[in-house]
Design a protein that fits this description.
Largest sheet: 5 strands, antiparallel
Distance between the termini: 122 Å
Structural class: alpha+beta
Order of helices and strands: HHHEEEHEEEEEHHHEHHHHHHEE
């Protein structure tokens, strides 16, 4: 009897030591049962959500995402989206990049996120029947067989498209009686993490309910764990592909400017006026400078060439450099890179005017300060 009591005491002490030495992270993971990547059992997909087993690498509460447009490239359908980092002020800055994601995968992640968002607001998002057509699916309509798959409409939204083959490679213009019910908001700044309307501890309301009590205990560290949990943004970050300039052009074409992108993506009327003004001014200055240079003395030309040789330039380099500057100005205008456009355009005007003033001063010195100087074929006092 005494031997059994001693053995029981030893086993109990060993159990206490083992429990006290348990990895704190492992213990914490046991209390985040609420963090299921699918967002709900109905939308759970082992293959789709298998990329994340509960990592703490990215605090998604600092991020925002904006879906720009649904585009078709090489007969494949993608959602173009932008991801923004911390302190982005409503998707107005801190853009991480512009990316694409398969429309079906994006829709699956978007619906999973919306289910969680609505749940925290005390609402029910419901089921999205369009998710049944993420993959190519055989349907029958009016006695005819078609294949249906979620894709992009001609307006850049979501649409269930009809195809004639089992690979959904040949689209047909047919009404198959299926309509998209995923209301994806484009050009809207989405929070990657949504917080409950009432984030109080539920433990006080869980008495008498063992399941609720377990959930309440799991929420002890909810605020910490939830910042890492974003169904939409984590999936978008994992499945994303880069969006090149052609892709960006398609996303910008025909889309209305949003509240955060209107000042960055398009030239407004006033900006277009100044683009025209500075472009015409640059052309005029180029003409005047070229006319003035034709009246340079041989001595001035020799001095200028020696100065260029001193910095490693030759006259044959000037024309390619000028063409390169013009190309970058036009390209930056096309891409709506506003800061670079203004820097190159206004800087070129300043440089041309400075060169013109230098040539005019030289012409004055040669004229003996007679009061009038012939500048670029004009008489300038």
């Amino acid at each position: 009897m005494k031997a059994s009591l001693v053995l029981t005491s030893i086993l109990g002490a060993f159990t206490l030591v083992e429990a006290s030495s348990q990895d704190p992270m492992t213990a914490d993971m046991k209390h985040q049962s609420h963090r299921i990547l699918s967002g709900s059992e109905d939308s759970y997909d082992d293959d789709f959500w298998a990329y994340d087993n509960g990592s703490y690498n990215t605090a998604w509460s600092d991020f925002n995402l904006s879906a720009r447009k649904c585009v078709t490239m090489n007969k494949k359908h993608y959602i173009v989206f932008e991801l923004f980092g911390r302190n982005n002020k409503g998707c107005s800055r801190k853009k991480k990049g512009t990316y694409t994601m398969d429309v079906g995968k994006f829709a699956k992640a978007y619906v999973a996120q919306k289910k969680i968002d609505y749940k925290y607001m005390g609402k029910d998002y419901g089921d999205a029947d369009s998710l049944d057509y993420v993959d190519c699916t055989l349907v029958e309509y009016n006695g005819n067989n078609y294949y249906a798959k979620l894709g992009c409409s001609s307006q850049g939204g979501l649409k269930i498209l009809a195809y004639s083959d089992a690979y959904c490679a040949t689209e047909v213009n047919a009404n198959i009686g299926l309509y998209n019910d995923i209301k994806l908001s484009f050009n809207y700044c989405n929070d990657c993490v949504t917080w409950p309307v009432n984030n109080d501890d539920d433990a006080a309301n869980a008495e008498g309910d063992d399941a609720a009590q377990d959930d309440a205990e799991g929420d002890d560290n909810f605020e910490y764990y939830h910042q890492f949990d974003s169904k939409l943004c984590s999936a978008a970050d994992y499945y994303k592909s880069s969006c090149g300039w052609g892709c960006k052009r398609m996303a910008n074409k025909g889309t209305s400017s949003s509240s955060y992108s209107s000042s960055r993506k398009y030239w407004n009327g006033l900006e277009k006026f100044f683009l025209l003004f500075w472009s015409v001014a640059a052309v005029g200055l180029i003409w005047v400078v070229l006319k003035q240079r034709r009246m340079m003395s041989r001595e001035d030309a020799i001095v200028e060439e020696a100065a260029m040789n001193g910095v490693g330039l030759r006259k044959r380099h000037i024309f390619p450099i000028a063409l390169g500057i013009i190309f970058f100005i036009i390209f930056s205008m096309f891409m709506v890179w506003k800061r670079l456009t203004w820097l190159l355009l206004i800087g070129s005007n300043i440089g041309l005017f400075a060169h013109f003033a230098f040539l005019r001063r030289k012409a004055k010195q040669r004229s003996g300060l007679t009061g009038y100087v012939k500048d670029g074929g004009l008489q300038i006092s």
